[in-house]
Amino acid sequence: MNGLHRAEFQSPIGVVEIIGTEQAIVSILFSEKEEMDYPISPDSPQVIVDCQRQLEEYFNGQRLEFTIPCQSTGTEFQQQVWSALTEVPYAETVSYGAIAKAIGSDKAVRAVGNANSKNKLTIVVPCHRIIGSNGKLTGYAGTLTRKEWLLRHEKEVGKNTPPANKT
């Protein structure tokens, strides 16, 4: 994989594949595989080990924010959208239109949806928190079933987290 390292772990909603360099995570995506082929190994870079730990903490309801270094590749517009996604608070949702407005491109709702679908850092860059203007769950590369699970999980954890721990 040319300087890239891979690891997988079993989340409550499927196998998650993590890809990174020695310094940063470049991809966190759900796999449709039933079983892991690449569990964390003793020679996995620390950033991959930390990523898996933080994702496990997220799934266990112990982590609301991520601190792992990430690196994404995309157009300037995509980068703006992905940055705006990270501003959506844990356990909350906003519309694609709200993201378009947040980046100063009110009319670019479809383009925001397209950029959202190209996000390779699922959960860490929370594209699952973006919904249709009618409040319906729409489009999620990791499947709508997973999107629904993630939103329900965050709402449940958010209900049980004291306000001081939500930042």
TrEMBL record:
It is found in: Cytoplasm. The active site is at C127. Residues 9-69 form the Methylguanine DNA methyltransferase ribonuclease-like domain. Its EC number is 2.1.1.63. It catalyses: a 6-O-methyl-2'-deoxyguanosine in DNA + L-cysteinyl-[protein] = S-methyl-L-cysteinyl-[protein] + a 2'-deoxyguanosine in DNA; a 4-O-methyl-thymidine in DNA + L-cysteinyl-[protein] = a thymidine in DNA + S-methyl-L-cysteinyl-[protein]. Gene3D superfamilies: Methylated DNA-protein cysteine methyltransferase domain (3.30.160.70), Winged helix-like DNA-binding domain superfamily/Winged helix DNA-binding domain (1.10.10.10). Belongs to the MGMT family. This enzyme catalyzes only one turnover and therefore is not strictly catalytic. According to one definition, an enzyme is a biocatalyst that acts repeatedly and over many reaction cycles. This is Methylated-DNA--protein-cysteine methyltransferase. The lineage of its organism: Bacteria, Bacillati, Bacillota, Bacilli, Bacillales.
